[in-house]
Each structure stands twice: as structure tokens, then as C-alpha cells.
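Protocol step 4 of 5: obtain the predicted structure for the target chain.
Materials: sequence only (see below). No template structures provided, no constraints applied. The aim of this step is simply to have a reference model before the mutagenesis design in step 5. Sequence pasted as it appears in the construct record:
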Amino acid sequence: MVVVALGLESWPVGVQIMLVLGVPGILVWVQERRRAELAAAKAELQNRLEREDREKADRQYKASSLSRTGGSIVAGVGTGPWGNATSAGMAQATRPPIEPAVTRRPRDRDRDGQSGKPSFALSRSRTGWVPAGETATVAGRAIGGMVYIGVPPRLHGDGGGARSRPYIDPSLTAAKHGSDRSGAQMPYWPGYSDIPPVCRATYLDWLADGRSDASYNAGYMFLYFYGLERRFLVDQAPEDERRQILAEVIRLQALYDDNRSASRYLGDFIEIAKVALDDPSIYEPVLEKIGWDVPFSMKVALGGRIGQGEALTADQLLGWFLNHPESRLRTAAVRCGDEFRALFRIRFDARFPSGLKVTRPRKTLKDSYTAASGEFEAALEPQINGAVVPDISGLRKPIEIAQEIAEEVMDDLDRLSRYLGRNPDGRGSLEAQALLPIDLATLFPSPALDALREWARDIADRGGLVPVADLIERLEGQRPQKLGARRLNAAADALAKVGYGIAPDPQLSLRLPRATEPVVVFDLAGVEERPGEVSGAYRAAQVQIALGAFVAHADGDVAEAERAALGALVQTQPDLTDPERARLTAELSWMLAVPPDMALLRRNLGRIADGEKDALRAAIAAMAQADGVIRAEEVAGIEKIYKLLDLDPSLAYSDLHAGVRSGPVTMRPAVPGAPGEPIAPEAPILLDAARIAEIRETTAQVSSVLGEIFGGEAEAEEPEDLPVPSSPIPGLDSKHAVLARDLILRPYWKEPEFEALAARHGLMPSGALETLNEWAFDAHGEALIDAYEGYHVEFEIAVAIMAQVGEEVSA
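Step 4 output (C-alpha cells):
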């Protein structure tokens, strides 16, 4: 530079300064450019060597590359239950094993920038798929078989694009220690060639240690699974090898059973693999909901059966219904699952003794499988005995029939469901057994019910009277402080299950017993179910015996003649069934054993309207005359009742005389006096049918009146421990909880639909989405909503929310 400066001494100063400052920069630029060119040339040489190493593998892959709409699965001819389909081929195009070159030029640095030389060895003479029973050694680790070893082929035949994910390239550096069990550096879709050395080492360690440690991130398991699904679907492995692969994937699914992504992706593969191998399990009914839609294997099994003209069984229809997206189930079907399934079978068999015949649909079953690795897609076209399988997806009538049966069953289980909702640990108790539909009694036996039957038989044999508190204690284990209709109904249901009833029955009687009063236990004459309603003849007879007991108690003591007359009334009452006659006999026994509360009568009688008083007055007079004898005690009692009704007591005589039969009768005991006309002897007790018939005409009105005067204020039930009102979903406020409850009713929401739903709950869509997904990640380890071309709801989380909410929503 000094020489240049001296030589240019005569040049202008400005030019000299420019040259002095600029020349060094130019020299530096030239030098850096030469270095860059050398580096580029070196990289090009390295890339060329790598392309040469992989050229053979790329040519092989290009020849048989499977595009995303390429292969298909066709189940072939068999001889199973309705064809026993066996796989005749897993792809339309056959893919030869990939055998890339094993040797590579050593280099100082791999593409991940990690120093070190590749270290690998194989116990086989070639690379590609290493079957079970053989072992590959990579980076000093014996990793076993069922993996791909070698340079990964590109996914497209043009030599560009990504490389196959499951291939373990031994030339790539793996760290000395696999320290990333948590998968912190693993991408969502891992590929062995793309993950960092520490993840490669961790993956190799997982393989070498037996592939059974679920503490490793599921991404390592997926990397292994990518190879299994590729081998099964792309390479057309032999059948015995495919069965090994299926068993291995089932093992992996169980190993990572708490990972929803693993359950979903591995479950999809297991579905189509079982169909391809004609696994017997695909013909077994699935009596639980396992996804948003009917599983592919179920479509194959049911479609094949319908295609051959065979009728569906109860379990087959139920499994189809439970997994159908349009099925509607209430809480009773979920809370009482075993009972629901058992009763559904009973009702189905009663309606379709020979099974349900379904018209064969015209549409053929077709589907597709997208690999979890995202590398290929296979078309699915199953066949049974060489014939295509009809697609049941569009059939509606069978599902409508199943819904009808399900609604009937859920109605019958509602009472049991509500009881179990109040008493989560009450299953198997006497109260729960009592609420079982009668059809299920033999399917769900109970030793406690057997013991209750013996107890009830002993009480009935000794006359039937037992303190109601003793009965409740026998059923619930403790004496009640108060009684109510719910508790008495539960007691009556329990006794009915063992063939016994109680009087008064809370559904049929004029009043309920108090906690200090007895009830009558009686034999139901072979009927093991409480009647929901009784006949008009029963109601008429009930009014008559109630009035008769009312009058009989009027003088404070029930005469034997009165007791006999009322008993005869029950036995001679026409149009009664044997169970009704037995129930009325028991109710009469209770009415005669438990005197009415006169203070209560006085208070209630004072509130009766004039028209009701007239009806009651006529009925009392008729009953007093029904046995043909009017006793002085009865007259005195009726006078008291008239006074309570604010009526002139002297009306009792005129009312009684208005209906007395011809001929003198005893009105009061005889006293010594002057001889006169002899009084006719007391006639035998005969019921006046005409007078009784008069009562029937006003049965409804009199029954209502009696209910008012006999019935006291209902005793309140003992308070139950009620939960403090809160959000139905822990961790969410009430608005977001209700939004989540509505969201899970459908598997997919369009963007405008989701926005409208959020707005309806007063929430912003973006904020609601973030809140729900953050909650889902904390509670379930995965997002509730996948926002991709709309909003997809994660099925497993939806099921968990349904269980939390515990409301009657569609499943």
C-alpha cells in the first residue's frame, strides 16, 4: 500500500484517499468470495456423494411410489360366520422391499451439524425392513426388529420432497445418551432423519429397552408405529407378519392408553387391520360408544350380515344404535348401563322373536385410511365371499326402531336412575332392587330381597300389622324420624318385588300412615308389581269401606257385626280382581285398626263446601243402612259427625229413616216397660245392593271429600344433602361450562355456527376457544376443540364432560 501511495503521489489528494481506503475492502471482498465458492463446491460435492448413495433407493421407490390416493384394501373370499373374509391383498400395486446401499462415505459432519463419525452395524446382509426375530444394531444399541433400517426413500418419485419418517438411517449421528424422554425437542410429526441427535438416541434407547416404557414421550412410539403401518399397508407383508404387527399395535395402544392421540390413530389402524385379517373380534357386538360414528369394522360386520339376508340380533342392533351419530341417550341409559342393555335385549326379543330383518342397501361400502405418518392413503373396499359389502351408513329405519325401544327402556329405568343419582353407592340395595323393572328381577338377583321375602311372609302370617317405622328400618337400616310419599313408595316397591304389599298404599290410599302408626303387610296373590292404577270398582268399594270404618269408629269402638259387614262388602263386591280384593281386605284391616284422628277430622270437616257435605251426608246414611241394622251407637256417632259438618244433628234421623227398609228395626236398646207390640228380631246382616249402588254414583266426589277429611298435612321428607350450586364442570365458570355442554352435542361445528353459539352464551368466539382448550389441556392433556376448517370436538373429552355434567343430553 505504501508503494501505491508513493506511485500516486502526483495524483489529487482526494483520489489518493479514496484508493487507500477502498483497495483493502475490495481485497477482503475478493477473498471472502473465494472462500464462499470453495465452501459451496465442497457442499455440492458432499451432496453429490449423498445423491449417489441414495440413487438406487430413489429409483426403486419411484417405480412403486404410492400417492395419497393410491392403494386399496380388498378383503377376499373366506368361510367365516358370514364369509370369514380373509385378506387377498393389501394394495393394488405391489411394493418391493427397499434395499438402499449400506455403505456411505465417511464425513466429518452430518446434516444436523453434529460432529462425529457414523456408527452402525447390521446382523443382516441387507437393509430395509428388519422382521421380528432379527436384530439391527445402530449407534452401539441392539434395537431388535420390526423396524426399517437404511437411507430413507423420498416420498415422491421425482427425487424431491421429504423422506420417509420411520427409516432409521445409521449414518446419522445419535447422541451418546438419550436424555429427552419428555420429547421436548420432538416435533409433532417426527421423522428419524429430522429429529436432533439427542432424540435419535432416546428413540434408540426406547427400542433397545423393549419398547415397553410408557414414560417416554408418545412421539417415540409414533415413530415406531409409522414403520408398522407402512409395512402392513404398503409392503404387503405376509399374513403371519401382519398378524404380528396387529398384535404389536394393540400392545402399544394399551401401553399408551392414557394418550388420546395414540388411542385414536392406533385404533383407526387396528380397525382396518382386523378387517383385512378377518379377525373374529369384528363380528362381536360392541355395546358401548367408541367414537363419533359407526366403526368401520362394525359397518363391515353388519353390512355383510344384511347383505346375506340374515336378521340382526338385539346386541347387533344395540351396538349399531349406540355408535350411530343420531342416537339419543338420556342419563338413565348411562347411569344404569348394565340394566339398560339387559332390558333392551328383553324388549327387542319380545318385539322381534326371529330377529330384525333389514332391507339391503344399494350403496357399496367404501372408505379410506390416511396413514398416521401422513405419507400415504389407502382406499378400503372390503369383500365378503367375493362380493362387495353393502354400506349401512344411510339406513335410518333400524336406528328409529332402536330409538323407540331405547326410549321405552329408559322410561322404565328413570326411577332407578334418579335413586342412584341421589345415592351413588346404592346399587344393589333393597331400594335399588325395588326400582328395577320386573323383567330384570331374575337377571339381577339379590340375597337381600330373599331375606326380605322371608320377613314379609312371617309378618303376613301373623296378621300383617307391623309398625311402619319397623318396616322402614328393615329396608333402610335406621328408624325414620318422618315419613313421606317417596319413602313409603320405596318401601311398597321393595315389598312388591318379593310378592307382598302394604296398606295403605301411598299411590292408592285415601291417606298416608304416620311414623307412629302401623301398616298391614299382605300377600299380593302372586303379583310381583304394584298396580299403576286400579279399576272403578276398586275405587267405589274403597269409598264404601272408608265410610263404613268412619261410622264404625264414631262411637269409639268397632263392633264385630260392623267388622263382619264391611268384610262381607269387600268379598261380595262385583268386578274386583283377586289382587284388588286382597288389597282392599288389607286396607280395611288397617282402617279398622287405626282410628281416625278426631281433632284432624274436626279441622278438615269444617273446611268442606256445602255441596260436598250433601254428598258425604248421603253416603254416610247409605252405609249405615247397608247392613240393614241401625244401632244406637251408630246414630250417636253420625250425630257427632253432623255436628262437625255444622249440620243439625236431628237430620241424622230423617236421613236414616229415608232409607230404612219396611218393618221396625232396633233403634236403641229395649228397657222394661208396659207390654206392647213385639219388636221384630234383628235380621241377619245382609247388604242392601240398591243402597250400595247409590254410593257408586257419587264415588269420585265422595272419594275426594274423604281424602280431604282423612288426610292430614303431608309429613315432610327428611332433608337430603344437596350439593352447593356451582359450575357443572370443575375448572370452568358457568358460562364456559354451559358452552362446553352444548358443544359436545355435535362432533363438528362450522365457523358461523360456533360464533353464533358463543354469542348466545355471551362469549367472544376466540376467547371462548382459548379458555376451553386451556382447560382441556389442564384437565385432559389435549385440546377440546381442533380449529381447522371449522371446529372439531375431541370425542374422548366430550365423553368425559358428559359424565361430569350428568345431565340428560344426547350422546
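Step 4 remarks: DSSP finds 28 helices and 18 strands in the chain. The longest strand covers residues 518-523.
Proceed to step 5.
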